[in-house]
Amino acid sequence: MSIKKIAITTGGGDAPGLNGVIRAVTLAACRRGWECVGIRHGFDGILHADEFEDGGTIALTPSRVRGIGHLGGTILGTTNRGNPFSYRVALPDGTFEIQNISDRLLKGFQDLEIDALVAIGGDGTMEIACQVAELGITVVGVPKTIDNDLDGTIATFGFDTAVSFATEAIDRLHTTGASHNRVMIVEVMGRHAGWIALEAGLAGSADVILIPEIPFDLAKVAEKVNQRNATNRNFSIISVAEGALPIGGEASYRTTGGIANLGGLGEWVAENLRPLVPNQIRTVVLGHLLRGGSPSSRDRLLALRFGTAAVRALEAGKKGVMVGLNPPEIHYVPLEEATRKMKLVPVDCDMIQTAEDLGTCMGR
Amino acid sequence: MSIKKIAITTGGGDAPGLNGVIRAVTLAACRRGWECVGIRHGFDGILHADEFEDGGTIALTPSRVRGIGHLGGTILGTTNRGNPFSYRVALPDGTFEIQNISDRLLKGFQDLEIDALVAIGGDGTMEIACQVAELGITVVGVPKTIDNDLDGTIATFGFDTAVSFATEAIDRLHTTGASHNRVMIVEVMGRHAGWIALEAGLAGSADVILIPEIPFDLAKVAEKVNQRNATNRNFSIISVAEGALPIGGEASYRTTGGIANLGGLGEWVAENLRPLVPNQIRTVVLGHLLRGGSPSSRDRLLALRFGTAAVRALEAGKKGVMVGLNPPEIHYVPLEEATRKMKLVPVDCDMIQTAEDLGTCMGR
Amino acid sequence: MSIKKIAITTGGGDAPGLNGVIRAVTLAACRRGWECVGIRHGFDGILHADEFEDGGTIALTPSRVRGIGHLGGTILGTTNRGNPFSYRVALPDGTFEIQNISDRLLKGFQDLEIDALVAIGGDGTMEIACQVAELGITVVGVPKTIDNDLDGTIATFGFDTAVSFATEAIDRLHTTGASHNRVMIVEVMGRHAGWIALEAGLAGSADVILIPEIPFDLAKVAEKVNQRNATNRNFSIISVAEGALPIGGEASYRTTGGIANLGGLGEWVAENLRPLVPNQIRTVVLGHLLRGGSPSSRDRLLALRFGTAAVRALEAGKKGVMVGLNPPEIHYVPLEEATRKMKLVPVDCDMIQTAEDLGTCMGR
Amino acid sequence: MSIKKIAITTGGGDAPGLNGVIRAVTLAACRRGWECVGIRHGFDGILHADEFEDGGTIALTPSRVRGIGHLGGTILGTTNRGNPFSYRVALPDGTFEIQNISDRLLKGFQDLEIDALVAIGGDGTMEIACQVAELGITVVGVPKTIDNDLDGTIATFGFDTAVSFATEAIDRLHTTGASHNRVMIVEVMGRHAGWIALEAGLAGSADVILIPEIPFDLAKVAEKVNQRNATNRNFSIISVAEGALPIGGEASYRTTGGIANLGGLGEWVAENLRPLVPNQIRTVVLGHLLRGGSPSSRDRLLALRFGTAAVRALEAGKKGVMVGLNPPEIHYVPLEEATRKMKLVPVDCDMIQTAEDLGTCMGR
Hints:
Four copies of one chain form a homotetramer.
Chain A: E1 5-10, H1 18-31, E2 35-39, H2 44-47, E3 57-59, E4 87-90, E5 96-99, H3 102-111, E6 116-121, H4 123-134, E7 138-143, H5 159-180, E8 182-188, H6 195-203, E9 208-210, H7 218-230, E10 236-241, H8 250-255, H9 258-261, H10 265-273, E11 280-285, H11 297-315, E12 321-326, E13 329-334, H12 335-340, H13 350-357
Parallel strand pairs in A: 1-2, 1-6, 6-7, 7-12, 8-10, 8-11, 9-10
Antiparallel strand pairs in A: 2-3, 4-5, 12-13
Helix pairs in contact in A: 1-11, 5-6
């Protein structure tokens, strides 16, 4: 089948670089004489086309994507609202029901005469992409995750920008910590994977780094802080992934406070460390600041490489694959493979060894 | 009296630029053949000299201050611990008593043969400086406040760096807000004065700006958000000073939640706005991120101007004055005048008019 | 006369913040029910309307100016091509003639039914604005100069961004200079006024600062470098304004090389300093890098204040005035006054004293 | 042999991240109970120990390397002066002779009782490291090159910082180019390899990218610029590696101007493009700005990983190897292999395809 028209969708949380992918796909597609449309807010632009003033899709032309490469976010909008294969539909009686409304998606694609889809997103979006591919639609995936936890690619756009910002934040807390003899805790994204906490912690010279992959012993953390106090470095910086957990696991964390009552794991560490060290303790939660902003040069580049590679894949007749970075080149992995497991920090990787060689406490 | 030796102290919260002042005072003093010592952690280096390994004071020489100008924080350390004129002293029975221990300070100055003091700090430090001056010690003050609420100077170092960072943060939240159709609330410092929330809010194109000087009506805030939703800009950015208050004042705020149970005013706005708008709402508290980091070029410059001006003031025989910026020049104001009142945002100043001319909701 | 429609023009070199003024004027004007048009490339959009596909003017609406506040440059385009009162007109025989074609401008304004003009630009643009005002057109000026050399305002947008970038550049050269024992010369804008070289030089801890206002003695520069070499700081950073001149003036500079044969004053200093010091010398010319980029938070704010103040001035019936910053407020100065003289660095201002108190060589 | 004392040297041009490696090697070595010394200015601290006040070497302890990780440059100093195996020695008659003075190096190592050397540098330093290894000294190399042209590692520290800065510079030139309808040329480092020009050019949306690996046809460049002019995008950005060459090669370049008479290849392109396009053309040479400054988070991380990996290699008894990045892990390659050939941009790599898919002119 020769391609005449493709669609682009962005799903899940926003990440710096999404617009770069959109620009790259559009330019590379138009160069090949293909038409290109963007679907608004995940698949909602098709599933609920009537809710959109503009009909739910945007014609993507070179002039429409001009100058968007350095902008954060996504001009298409995104959503966490719905997987068309298990969609939360409101019923007349006010309750909700999970329905498979993928026929609506298929019909939308047929009405728009779309030959192929470039789906940009995280593991959720890749799983949907797999199912869409099973409906017979040609799909190429482009990986996106701030947390860097997608398998099948060494890196994704957005991650470098997030690490850069988190490092800058740690730099800032250093000066305050040192001036006031404080323990400064910075909590970053990373529910399952500690890449941001680890890389920013190392780059920012954190004294303690706590990640989900290594359950931590708070006594070790206190020991590190007190050992620094004893050698006249009366402050400490702690980089915490939101998903890090104390040894003994989730149970103990929940019963002693947990996310519900406090602000997150950063606050939990602060509360529980307070009795063990003499320093004042302050916590900063970076949260949404990590997702936003203009992509770093590295992320802009990766976005462009991924976007054009997706188009070259379609041109070459590939389908059901996800683009990935396999330095120094781009490669393609089957979509199912990409979503099979999360890419966690190996607890014996050289970065963990680096941390421990530098004297950083990993909580173990 | 001709000066042979001066002391420098930094008090209150840290601010980017403190090290620039220390460097400038040191270089300008040494050029005049004066000796220069830095007191550790406010006045604690003298009040509790025995607690410090290095004796509580540091000889400040040109080589000691080399390369510190671009570092945040203060190499002297700072403290909020104590005003020597009403110091919180621990008693043997475990209780505390407020005592005037300024004689210890005076004796320390005499023992060290210090002829004059450069006191760098906020209103607390300036008030102590006034009292120290009354003891007969020659004092020149250098204003420091992240919040920009010190009277007697158009600007203080640290403020520009804080506004820059807050603006960058708002930029970041913009892309996430727009991609997800959210209301993003950013809470910044400013207990009594809304300068940071106002300037960063304007520079970052916030849609709503709430400052302590203008009690806000939450209905107006909701109206603004909904009006934007109605015109297809389905996200809004709200810049909130931590000290902003709803109309009706502190009482209502406290009873409905307040700082104790929630995270601060940002969280209060989020909670109370939620029923009034359809958007998801997310809050980010910048907190200590605003204090840290390398000073902006503007703040580095201001720090150097203030520091050398303090030395020139001492050389000219001035005492009991605070250095201030009166563009384009430096001026000197009596210390009492500088601490008499806070510099609040005038509710009819051109910046407020600017905000309202741009359509920004000021909550009124 | 009540205003129904206003025009905006941007003239001279571009500066970060121009788009902020355009956005602010547009929003403030539309709020008052006025129409707003932007003239393309200075006055060329009217003088040569036929050369433009879009007719030479752009309807400026709130949606047209959305999101432009943080972009450098000007969406209207700018030009140095022509003063309508002494325009360089091509004659049929291939030569040029200076003509007054202001009647064409006046006619354009009448055809477009423009009631008032907001002219954003430097001294050239302000002088044209004066003459346009004499034709009977209501004009308000908004000052723009990277060099900060416009009288009638303490600061202009673009200047802070330029100083920030120049400071960052000096920071970068520091590390290379120190690692290689080199003299690093950084040449910045400033043909007549040395504000950028002085402020960035101070903020970046330059060892030598050369500005047009203080003719410099190269022997003093060499002395400073060698004195540093003698005390084991084997590198030096020199901040040079492009318009700085050695004592004895322009003549000697021209005959020994000058701008024509070399790259600018930075290169001249390098060539002539080389025989006097043992260090390797490297020169960097920042040039156009200083003009571009996203405006700093300070410049964004100033642009918004200036833009809305211009509209408020028109509303209040003011004419023939330029908006200016007179901290902490905005003021208005007659256009003629604003262009009467340049704002140079006073050679005895506190910033020069600061430099010399820090031991910085000012070449004298 | 068990290690008791190691030495560190930094050679060649400085790069952001050198201090991170020094810090990492020091901390990791001291953790193992080893002593650590830094050699000043390449090997000069040993070859000419008498010229140094401090004896030419620095004891590197944890407290000595505290806080240096985010500083650019190298606290050891560097030099391009001399390869001890072919050293340029001054003779009494004023002439120079190339001598092998490696015995002096060997003796220095013996006197200092150094068991192993960590040599940080580019290809020159790695070649010397090979020869030093042949003298029987245990050597581990750490790769450093701004240009990213070292084989045996996917990336080196300093490169990401350089690309980030070059991208920011291109962003800045965009706004000026667009406002003035100009062609802006930015010349970056890259004598043999075009990595910086290519990556920054892509990330910064340059319209033309010229690299040494692809001889360029100026007619193609002009065609691109004019094609943009014809479609109302009246400006173009050109990213040029200093070592890019027109088709026909070096000869034609040299005869028509070349580096000697003009400023570099950027200026040559400007001169020769001027007759072919109607736009004004401006050139900016980034030069030394690319080397300096605080390392990016990515480069800080890489520096720490390389530094600790070098120590782990020594501990494991490895010798004659260079540390390299083989994502996601660190690997070790024989020193000879690392210096055997340069890592050039493959002309058919996915990044070149990306550029051409985006419509970027690669000059072919």
